[in-house]
Design the sequence.
């Protein structure tokens, strides 16, 4: 009897966990998002919009300063609109694992470079090489939140909302 109850509980938890990752992946399947980022050691909110295309990512920051990032293959073009400066540089996907995750527009469960742990309300994605951990979850299927610590150990939260 206890074994049947345990199996039923385990299967129902597994189905819920898979629906959680499916909901996140469906959310990421959109192309346009409002973007807000806050750091735990700052009162400043960085806001703008994020566009996910099949070949590139475009992030436009409108507040508190104006800049944009165009990410394509292994290059980032940074445009500082306030100071009229532009710079393109090559980057390694190992330096920014969040770019690799977001560019796929889903949380890949079959990627050998990532550990994916699905819990009831959260999905934890750990980049095996950098050991960087991302906590990803949806709030009421309207806001995707990605929490992580940057290279300096500062906690950051990114909030994405779909744009029409």
Sequence:
């Amino acid at each position: 009897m206890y074994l049947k109850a345990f199996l039923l509980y385990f299967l129902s938890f597994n189905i819920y966990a898979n629906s959680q990752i499916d909901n996140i992946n469906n959310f990421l399947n959109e192309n346009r998002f409002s973007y807000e980022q806050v750091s735990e050691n700052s009162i400043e909110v960085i806001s703008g919009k994020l566009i996910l295309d099949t070949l590139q990512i475009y992030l436009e920051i409108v507040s508190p300063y104006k800049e944009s990032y165009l990410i394509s293959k292994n290059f980032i073009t940074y445009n500082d609109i306030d100071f009229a400066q532009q710079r393109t540089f090559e980057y390694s996907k190992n330096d920014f694992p969040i770019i690799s995750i977001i560019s796929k527009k889903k949380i890949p469960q079959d990627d050998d470079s990532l550990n994916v742990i699905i819990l009831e309300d959260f999905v934890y994605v750990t980049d095996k090489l950098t050991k960087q951990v991302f906590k990803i979850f949806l709030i009421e299927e309207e806001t995707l939140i990605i929490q992580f610590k940057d290279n300096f150990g500062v906690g950051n939260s990114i909030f994405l909302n779909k744009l029409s």
The first helix runs from residue 2 to 28.
